[in-house]
Structure formats: C-alpha cells, structure tokens
TrEMBL record:
Signal peptide: none annotated. Residues 23-278 form the EAL domain. The chain holds residues 692 to 971 of 1117 of the full protein. Belongs to the leucine-binding protein family. This is EAL domain-containing protein.
C-alpha cells in the first residue's frame, strides 16, 4: 500500500513481500525514467563559511514518476543494487557538465567555482567510467577542473586498490575528488594520503549535534585538524542553524551547505539566486 505524503510516495508496512514489490516497481520505472523525462537535477548552493557567498553547487537528482516523487534515498540504493546507477550516473554527469558549460558562458570569470556530482561505488567498478566521463566532458565543453566528484568514504575504502587506479585516471582528466559523508566510514590516514583526494565533506550526522553534543564537536575538531594536515578543503553538509555555522566557522571549516542558506534549487532558481548575488 502506498500513500502520497509530503516527500512523495511512502511505502508502509515493510513486509518482505512489499519490499520486493517496491524494488520491482522502482526498478522497472527507473529503466524508462530517462526517456520519459522524469528525472531532473537540483543544485544546492555551497557557500563560503565566512561570507555566505555561493562558491559552488552540488547536483542532487530528483525523480518525478507520473504523479509523484520518489526520494533519492529510496531509488539510488535500488539503482545501485540493480546496476541501473551506471546509466543514471552518466546522465547525471552529463547534466553537471551541461550546467558547468552554460554557467561559465553566462557568467565568465564570475561563474561558481565548481559543480559537484555524486558518484557511487558501483560506477567505479565500471571499467569504461573514465572513458565515458572523458567523452561527456568533450561533448559538453565542460571544464574538468570545475567538476568535483563526490564519493562516499565507505565506497572509497571498500576496494582501495581498484579505486586508486580509477581515481588516478579521473584525476588525470583534471577533475577533483571529495570524500563524501566523511566520518561515517573508517579511513586511516595512510589510506587517505594514498588517494588523489582534494576535499572532505563532513557528514550531516556530525554537524547535527555540533552545537550541543561535545563528542560531535570533538569529532569535527579532529576532522578539521586532519584536513589541515593533509592540505584538503573542508565542506560541512546539513547546516541548519546559526549555532552550527558559528561553531564550524570557529573550527575553521571552509565551506558549508545546508537549509540555513539554500535548499536544493531547480536550475532557473539557482541562476536567479546567483545572478542577484553578483549584483550585490
Ligand atoms: P548526500 O550526497 O549526502 O547529499 C546531501 C543530502 O542532504 C541531500 O539529500 C540534500 O538535499 C540533503 N540536505 C542538504 N542540506 C540539508 C539540511 O540542511 N538539512 C537536511 N536535513 N538535509 C539537507 P537528497 O537530495 O535527498 O539526497 C540523498 C542522497 O541520495 C544523497 O546524499 C546521495 O547519497 C544520494 N544522491 C542524490 N543524488 C544523487 C546522484 O545524482 N547520484 C548518486 N549516486 N547519488 C545521489
Ligand atoms: Ca554528496
Ligand atoms: Ca554528503
Ligand atoms: Ca550525507
């Protein structure tokens, strides 16, 4: 039984049968989602922690099948399981490249510094990934130095030798790499220094209690220290209130992303928001 809620379709009663049925309908629906034009990118601004000005944006995928919306938290894991993420991931990467190219033509030197795009572990296992990305960069005219690939800590560390090889090829194309959801996995310093990584993204779970829970503050302080030692930029995600911002600023976090500043926006709204900021 499904029911339409605030965030789209919710599936109640997670009996095994229902889970199987949900997975099946999502799998079948996703297969046609691209050609039916049901997918749409959102761009969540990433801002400078000190000035609050937009420095970049993260592309977040949205799916609107027929009359509803299904959250990426539901369909991305299913797409990863079935392998559909490979085709979806290429579509997403192309959208990021198209936006990068269009924004740079529109705003020239004042354009946002980068667009970040999520890449899942399953995509890294695809032998053709670097060639596909390279072709899409060429076709869209995007500047690879302005594309940041976000890969979760857990998937990076899962198969570090294979990933190292793939990441080197992606880095050779000129793109930069961020460790997403940092703090939720287990990377050792030794592993981190081996990978061509430029940015750490602190997971929302740690930003959440930063203003009230001293353990979270300690974790964040450790992450900031690690980033400094390795010369990496730091982005904190899920910043919802001013207390969190002040704390992150005091710790020396470079960039922040969260509802306190901007929600994920459709491209027109992003363009409006950024244009207005440039006029200020
Ligand atoms: P993520 O990469 O950690 O993305 C951040 C999530 O936090 C996004 O959820 C974003 O909308 C949400 N968020 C941002 N600021 C705030 C805030 O202040 N408060 C709260 N509560 N949430 C905030 P979203 O868009 O629902 O995406 C969920 C996850 O789905 C993403 O987590 C990412 O793992 C995955 N995902 C989304 N789009 C893609 C994609 O194109 N490819 C892949 N592989 N995964 C994607
Ligand atoms: Ca991300
Ligand atoms: Ca994240
Ligand atoms: Ca996260």
């Amino acid at each position: 039984v499904k029911q339409k809620g605030r965030d789209g379709w919710h599936f109640f009663n997670d009996s095994l049968e229902q889970k199987v049925r949900q997975r099946l309908s999502v799998t079948q629906g996703l297969r046609l989602a691209i050609e039916r034009n049901e997918l749409s990118p959102r761009f969540q601004p990433i801002v400078c922690a000190d000035s609050g000005r937009i420095v970049g944006a993260e592309l977040l995928l949205r799916w609107f099948p027929q009359d509803g919306e299904i959250s990426p938290a539901i369909f991305i894991p299913i797409a990863e399981m079935t392998g559909a993420i490979v085709a979806l991931g290429l579509w997403v990467f192309r959208q990021a490249c198209l936006a990068e190219s269009a924004w740079r033509q529109r705003w020239r030197d004042s354009a946002p510094s980068y667009i970040s795009v999520n890449v899942s572990a399953r995509q890294l296992n695809e032998e053709s990934l670097a060639d596909d990305f390279s072709r899409i960069l060429r076709e869209t005219g995007a500047d690879p130095r302005r594309i940041l690939l976000e890969i979760t800590e857990t998937s990076l560390m899962a198969d570090i030798d294979t990933n190292l090889r793939i990441l080197r090829r992606l880095a050779d194309l000129g793109m930069r790499v961020a460790v997403d959801d940092f703090g939720t996995g287990y990377s050792s310093l030794a592993q981190l220094t081996r990978l061509p990584v430029n940015v750490l993204k602190i997971d929302r779970a740690f930003v959440d209690g930063i203003d009230t829970q001293s353990e979270n503050r300690a974790v964040n302080r450790a992450i900031v220290g690690l980033a400094r030692a390795l010369g990496l930029k730091l982005v904190a995600e899920g910043v919802e209130n001013i207390e969190q911002l002040l704390e992150l600023r005091a710790l020396g976090c470079d960039y922040v992303q969260g509802y306190l500043f901007h929600r994920p926006l459709d491209e027109q709204s992003f363009i409006g928001r950024f244009s207005r900021e440039l006029e200020e």
